[in-house]
Amino acid sequence: MNAWLIYDHEGAKRNKDYIDYHYEVGSHHGISFELKYVDEISESAFSEIPSFALVRTIDPQINKMLEEHGIAVYNNSMVSYIANHKGRCIDCISEKTSVPTVKSDVIKPEDDIDEILSEKKGYVIKPASGHGGENVCIISDDKHSAERIKKVHKKDDLILQPFIDGPREDVRVYVIGKQIIAAVKRRAVGTEFRANASLGGDIFKYNLNENERDYVEQIIDIFDFGMVGIDFIIDENGGFVFSEIEDVVGARMLYKTYPEIDILDKYIKYLKDKTLNNNH
Fold it and tell me: Which residue of 45, 98, 195, 262 is surrounded by the most CB atoms within 10 Å?
């Protein structure tokens, strides 16, 4: 069995060890991974079709193009399209499940950002396609933040949300297919309101209660996931509020908090079994 592992150049450089681990785990399961860069994917690349492709860069058009050439893609183009726009994602969960969501407004590049920055002090504003907490701000009188928001606004939709005055914690739930693998709680430190581990947040193992597990399962039921992270903010009452789905989800937090779980091994075994079942 052969598979494509698709990255952009910067992502591949940053994740070299993880790419090497794909080769190692894939070999154990009889799968040969080949690294492909996004800018190499053209019509000439489809002379040989892989058993499946893992897209580890955020570019829903790539997922779609691969599918149009008959390649099984993880995550598929629908997951990529919905998950990589926070507004679309929240609308989808709000419409199709009973999971609590944050009231969110989409700010288009043509909308008057100065008026919003003036009238929505204390609201959270973030890029619709952002990840890792980058460029997420609380609207204030800070001119530096305002300029950063305006710069992002020129090239991306923004999401405007009321600030949730909770314990500055969130939970990421790792999912493969229809199976919940584990959950990790992240807690902001110091004066930071964002709990992302990449921004220095503390991380802990987390056991989902019955109600929280139901929320995750409702989301799982409406998608055909490969592997994702489903993120929930913890509100002022200790309850889960849906935040986003991480399509190209990282695994560092999981390996740190659950060294006994090899999620890449589980994922590749899942993809191998699914590919074999689809071919029969």
Answer: 195
> CA–CA separation, 141 vs 162, rounded Å?
17
pLDDT of residue 137: 82
pLDDT at 253 over 60: yes
